[in-house]
Structures are given as C-alpha cells and as structure tokens.
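Problem 12. The chain below contains 343 residues. Write out its predicted structure in token notation.
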Amino acid sequence: MSHSKSSPRGESSVNIIGAGVAGSWQALLFALAGYSVTLHDRDDAAMTQATSHWAGGMLAPWCEREGSEPLITRLGLRSLDLWREHLPDTPFNGSLVVAHPRDRADFERFARLTTDHQRLDADGIAKLEPSLDGRFREALFFPGEGHVEPRRVLPELHARLAQAGGTIRFEASCNPDDLDGLVIDCRGLAARETDRPGTNARLRGVKGEMIVIETDEVQLARPVRFLHPRWTLYVIPRDNNRFMLGATTIESEDTGVSVRSALELLSAAYAVHPAFGEARIVEIGAGLRPAFPDNLPRIAINGPHIAVNGLYRHGFLLAPALAELTLAYVARGAIDNEVMQCS
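Solution.
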C-alpha cells in the first residue's frame, strides 16, 4: 500500500482469522482503508471446509424481513450498497416469490410481512421468467435484491484483497492468542474451540442442506422462492445450467443430508417446474451456520481481539455491513449498540 493507516489505538496492521465471507469482507475493507492486513485460514484456497461453500448467496434484505428482526434488514440494505461499490458485477436481478393457489394464505402472509415488492400476474411472471410461463397465477417481485455464487465470489474477494495489498495465508490454523496486535476472529463455529468468556460460548450450529442440479430445460435469471406450509424452497440459478436447491434450517450440528430433506427439496423443485424432475443431481451437501440464541450477529470487542460471529443464514447478506462497522470502530471508535458488545 502507498500509505499506512493507524487507528486511535495506534494499530496500523490487523490479523483476521477465517477467510470465509465474513473474514474476507473484513480483510478487504481494512486493506482498502490503508491497514496492513493478513488473512489466515486453516483451509486451502478452495475453501471447501468453509460454511460459505454451502451457502445460497442471496442478497435479499426485503425477503428476509418475513422471518427476521429489523436489524437484518438494516444491515442488509447497507450491504447491498457495499456489494455494488466493491464488486460492481454483482447481479441485481431481483427475487421472485411464488406459491400455488392452495397456499395463497402463506403467499399473502409473506406479502404483508415484507416491503418493496411488486405484485405480478401470470403474464408478468412469464415476461420476467419465460420458463415459468403458466406455472403460477401471481408472484411477488423484489426488484432491488441480488444474488452471488459463493464459490465464485469468494475467490474474487480474495483477489481484490491481494490487489489492495493484503496477504492471505491458507493452511494456517491459528487462534487469536497466537497472533500479536489487533486480531479479528471470523472463524464461525470453530471459535468455540478457544472461547473467551462471554464471547462465543452460546454459539450453536444450524444445519443448512442443499442440492445442486443441472438441466438446460429451465432458465432463470434470479432466485425463486417457493412458499409451502412446511418449508420454503429456494431455487438459485448458477452458471452452466445449474441450480442450487436449498435450504433447510435444522437445529443440528450433524453435517449429513437426510433422506427426508432431500425428498422435500427435490419435490418442491418439481413443483416449481416439472422439468426439474429430469435434471441431473450434481451435488448434495450441508453446512453449519454459526448462530447465537437470538439468531442475530455480534461484534464482540475484548481489548485488541474482536470477534465477528453469529451471521446465521445471512452471511453473504450481512458480511459487508459488519466489516464496515468493525472498521468504523477501529478507525474512529464508533459503536453500533445493536451489534457491538464491549467487555
């Protein structure tokens, strides 16, 4: 970097542990602000052990309002701006929410609990997503939302960090006590291994299962949420005629995928479009999302150690805004009382 940034505490360098989406955004924003940044991760560059590897990558703050606290929407809206600013190629094609007529009550409930959407009739759906022509009578369209493909965007974040002068050390397992100076811990559930009192002790893992399928008989430009009384399905378009089906939310730290979950995901996908019934299954897997009891994120400050954790189902949605808040604290002493805890 051409200059060195120092915080009010005097730090000009920062070590960040965890190169998933939370840690990568922390590293990128600190590096762009002029700090000397080193990002550490126990995994290799493929990051297959990261929770991010199994994520959906939806940037949907208005849709998430249906089942989340206002904090998620507030942080999520700010994150949209940061995605646009720092990764301008991020697709913002909106989100589509659909349901069959028998589940109209769930559809209307979703509409009441969310904002910033447009109601579409069957013709409007067909114009937006021709593959869904004749499949649904109405839909909710959230035009301001976006999505990313986690396994593609994470390397992009790492590349941006390198361009900004940061260093990434893969296959480097460490905990905060191993490092000097300012340390930001973004290890998710792994942070419980070296817990500091009151910081991560109440973390739990929430399993999210997913299936990747491949077919050239359906084309989608945006995520489609299919509402159902028992579960909600997300169909998220990927490159090369692939789609991610997800995601369950199961209170378990087992990383296997159950037969029941697989049947529900595949059955719901078939209900969205029968052509999915002939699709090829490419991958089935599950990740553990780190969550606190209230399912809200925390930035816990303990001297030179800062823990950013508890992003739950909202990692890609919240990570940029949380990184900005951490940077504001380190650089200016700014505190966000809804998110930050100081010990």
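Discussion. The chain is about 30% helix and 25% strand. Students who got a different answer should revisit the alignment rule from Section 12.3.
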